[in-house]
Specification:
single chain; about 450 residues; alpha/beta; FAD/NAD(P)-binding domain; 2 domains; 6-stranded mixed beta sheet; binds flavin-adenine dinucleotide
Length: about 450
């Protein structure tokens, strides 16, 4: 008898966990992702602030699954699902909308940015979801210092060296803290005309506190730490406008050339493909076994699924996606091998962590609430553990130790396909002064 075919869409935390957990299932597993790599999104902010390189947080999916004989990787974009014909439509390099049939389907397509109805902000305030986004953010940050160094009018330095983060959740807090450390340590002595330490970092959010998913006490600790690092925090204030000249926060214009969107997320369009019921955020409402109502062969997991436990929806975090991925795999394995059903999914919450600058984190797990260096060591240990391969774990560990001890960051590269911008008169004068005298 032909083996069943299991299609997994998405090689992120959920999809990859499911694929690996299916290694012993007598089935053909096909993992489809539009990128060729699994991305460790929690460390994207470290690429954006030049602490890590893209290759240290992204791993080729083919490499991860190369020894799993029942798994095939396809690089392509899924554009739809036909629930009745049991097929997904895939667009790859040379063909569009090719139907690929499945017996079981796991949708793990994650989420994207949400500009809360203000999509026009996107071109001025890009978000951070992919490696390309993180590299673009790094380019933007480093370019701002180069432009300020080349700028003759000191009045413009302030605008060029003002960095605004919109959204004080974990991504905004971690990015603001890392940027403050980058500016005040690594870049401190790199420039001659400007003082990088004079840069202004603003973190704005309409919520009354930072890190709202943490307790009040930890949220206050994170806020104090950011303030000590020189970050200006604007809470309870909405960002009303973002344009080429900066942002308007609660009626006040803040001139800035570098605005980064670290606020809302929206799920992938999986619910539209399935025409399924969603929660208010647009995530697919799933049954207690993570399947779509009326379709026990379709699982939706991770950021794109809405699953309630104790009356509250599970958060969009890596742990939820991984546990759901492993559960979906076990449920399919059980059906394929024993023809029986698994009990309902239940989430084991291991806790929540966020880093604030160098050597400081907040950690909340059950009744445990700690902040400081110990929490940061725990954060580092946990994150190393969850990187995809042992070579990445070693490489990131060594990089962190080196950066911690030396304050240096090797990946301060501005990478773009454009040639260098024409030099200003001030820079030309510097070039002439530096040229060897004949
Ligand atoms: C900047 C940032 C920081 C974060 N920090 C933390 C943290 O500190 N701790 C934590 O627990 N969580 C954190 N998260 C959240 C965490 O990364 C997500 O909850 C988790 O990645 C969700 O896993 P997933 O499998 O649902 O989706 P993802 O991991 O996002 O994977 C989705 C995959 O689907 C692929 N895909 C999407 N659409 C298609 C399509 N149409 N066709 C083919 N492939 C497709 C994508 O390429 C991607 O590989 C962070 C997220 C971000 C963006």
């Amino acid at each position: 008898m032909a083996q069943p075919r299991i299609i997994i869409v998405g090689g992120g935390f959920g999809g990859l966990a499911a694929a690996k957990a299916l290694s012993r299932t007598p089935a053909r597993v096909i993992l489809i992702d539009r990128t060729n790599h699994h991305l460790f999104q929690p460390l994207l902010y470290q690429v954006a602030t030049a602490a890590l390189t893209p290759a240290q947080i992204g791993t080729p999916i083919r490499g991860i699954l190369r020894n799993q004989r029942n798994a095939t990787v396809v690089m392509g974009e899924v554009t739809g699902v036909d629930k009745e014909q049991k097929c997904v439509f895939v667009t790859n390099a040379d063909r569009s909308d090719v139907p690929v049939e499945y017996d079981y389907l796991i949708l793990a397509t994650g989420s994207t940015h949400s500009y809360f109805g203000h999509d026009e902000f996107e071109i001025f305030a890009p978000g951070m979801k992919s490696l390309a986004d993180a590299v673009a953010t790094r380019n933007k940050i480093l370019q701002a210092f180069e432009l300020a160094e080349a700028e003759e009018d000191p009045k413009r330095h302030r605008d060029l060296l003002t960095f605004v983060m919109v959204g004080a959740g974990p991504t905004g807090v971690e990015l603001a803290g890392a940027l403050a450390v980058l500016i005040r340590t690594t870049l401190r002595t790199d420039f001659r005309r400007i003082d990088p330490a004079s840069a202004r970092i603003v973190l704005a959010d309409r919520s009354p506190r930072v890190l709202t998913t943490f307790s009040e006490r930890l949220s206050q600790a994170a806020k104090r730490r950011l303030e000590n690092l020189g970050v200006e925090i604007r809470l309870g204030q909405s960002v009303e406008q973002i344009d080429d000249d900066g942002v308007v926060v609660a009626g006040e214009r803040i001139a800035s050339k570098t605005v980064i969107w670290t606020a809302g997320v929206a799920p992938s369009p999986a619910s539209k493909w399935l025409q399924a019921e969603t929660d208010r955020a647009g995530r697919v409402r799933v049954e207690s076994d993570l399947t779509v109502p009326g379709h026990p062969e379709i699982f939706v997991i991770g950021d794109t699924a809405s699953f309630e436990e104790k009356g509250r929806p599970l958060p969009g975090v890596a742990q939820v996606a991984m546990q759901q991925g492993r559960y979906a795999a076990r449920a399919i394995h059980r059906r394929v091998t024993a023809g029986s059903l698994l009990g309902p999914f239940s989430y084991f919450d291991k806790g929540n962590m966020a880093v604030v600058g160098k050597g400081f984190a907040v950690l909340q797990s059950g009744k445990v609430q700690v902040s400081g260096f110990g929490a940061w060591l725990t954060w580092a240990f946990v994150h190393l553990q969850f990187l995809a391969t042992s070579s990445l774990r070693l490489s990131v560990f060594l990089q962190w130790v080196w950066t911690y001890l030396s304050g240096q960051r090797g990946s301060r590269l501005i990478v773009s396909h454009h040639g260098p911008k024409p030099a200003t008169a001030a820079v030309e004068a510097d070039i002439r002064a530096a040229a060897p005298r004949k």
